[in-house]
Amino acid sequence: MAGLAGHWEMFSISNEIGCYVTCISDSGMLPWLLASLFMALLLFVSYLNAKTPGSRISSFIAAQLCMLASIGIAVSSMHCSRMLTIEIYTAYAGLSTLAALLLPRVYQRVLIGRHMARPIAEIMEWPQAFANKVGNNSNLNSSGTLDVYYYDSAIPRAFASGKAIFLSIGLIEIMDMDELKAILAHEVWHLRHRTGTPILRNLSMITFTRNCTGSELERLADTFAAKTVSRNAVESARAKLS
Amino acid sequence: MVKLDRINLSNEGLTKFFSPIEAQIMTVLWENGECTTPDITERTGIPLSSVAGTLDRLVKAGYAKRTVDRSGQRVRYLYSASESMDSTANSITRKVLDSLVDTFGKVAIENFHTYNKK
Ligand SMILES: [Zn+2]
After folding, report:
1. ipTM above 0.85, yes or no
2. What phi and psi values does residue B62 have, to the nearest 5 degrees?
3. Shortest Cα distance from A40 to chain B (angstroms)?
4. Of the residues A26, A29, A157, B52, which has the fewest C-beta atoms closer than 10 A?
């Protein structure tokens, strides 16, 4: 009997999908539905390729809106069972939550590939150990590993994404040990600071450059760096980058 | 950077083929051999903020090369020119001649045969 019940369920779902397809194609909305799904896909790709924090957040939000529009179009053209609608909503909510949790990690892999980043341990020993120590500091409310990477560029830059901190060789060249420690502490604070808007914050790439001073988060990150290393180190690192 | 569409015959010296900053950096590398980043900023007198991106471009285009030196306490780049000034001049000349022959064919070649610098 169980087999029969299972078969009946399968039949019902394929029936419902059939009804869905008929409803949507009858209402003439199918091209619109496909177009908005395609737009959402393009926007997710541009989210992963975005170079600035602003364009990353806006492409992510736009992609979400396109997905919602697709669902809206599908629902508005429905005349049959409402069950599948609820199932699609649930599936989308689940998938987008998963995506929001996984995309920063995916983006981290994208950054490693784009900059051909290598583990910093290949050229220097102390930064990874220092980041581990600061990252597990009791003042910060989460722990776990943070990976420090270096990449080949003369342009002095530090940034963080997901669970990784990236330093250019150009930055390592011009900073002394205390200044590098201050920069690492600043980035660790960003990655570890989970209050506020974690998802949006994870979406925007965090940098240590002159154009990101000023904001409240930057001041807090600098305060943490000053406490961990010294106020002088933070200020001279900033001065070298301006 | 020695792209044919960027060649500017009305400029002076190497800036016919390179941007002014590229030309200054390449001259320092040709004249001094291996250089650190501070060597380059001191000898060109151009601040790091303007030199860094150009160094990345020169390395990417293959005119300069760099290694990561870890022999001292610090990590640093060591830059050098990929080829001597003469062989760079050679490849630029080839590029220009190729394009002249491409465009003007026999006329260009006849000019090379009768060419004598005044
Ligand atoms: Zn920051």
Report:
1. no
2. 90, 5
3. 35
4. A26
Integer Cα distance of A58 and A67 in angstroms: 14
pLDDT at A72: 80
Q: In sequence order, what DSSP letters do the residues of A152-171 get, joined into one string? A: --SS--EEEETTEEEEEHHH
- Residue A106 CA neighbour count, 13 Å, CB half: 12
Interface test with A, best of B35, B69, B74 (most A CBs within 10 A): B74
CATH architecture assignment, domain A109-241? 2-Layer Sandwich (3.30)
Mention every residue, 6+ apart, whose C-beta is less than 8 A from residue B84: B30
CA B49 to chain CA centroid, nearest Å = 20
* Sheet bearing A147-151, strands edge to edge: A118-119, A147-151, A164-168, A158-161, A206-207
* Strand bridging mode A118-119 / A164-168: unpaired
Neighbour count for residue B117 (Cβ, 10 Å): 3
Between chains, do A123 and B52 touch, taking CB under 8 Å as contact? no
Q: How many domains does chain B have?
A: 1
Query: Is residue A220 within 8 Å of A182, Cβ to Cβ?
Result: no
CATH code for the domain in which residue B38 is found: 1.10.10.10
A173 contacts B74? CB cut-off 8 A: yes
Q: How far is A146 from chain B (nearest CA, A)?
A: 22
- Domain borders along chain A are 11-82, 109-241
- B30 pLDDT more than 50: yes
pLDDT of residue A92: 78
Tell me which chain B residue has its CA closest to the CA of residue A120: B75
CA pair distance B31, A113, nearest whole angstrom: 36
Note the pTM of the prediction, 2 decimals: 0.70
Interface with chain A: mutation pick from B29, B44, B68, highest number of A CBs within 10 Å:
B68
Q: State the DSSP H helix or E strand holding residue B64, giving kind and residue range, or none if neither.
A: strand B64-69
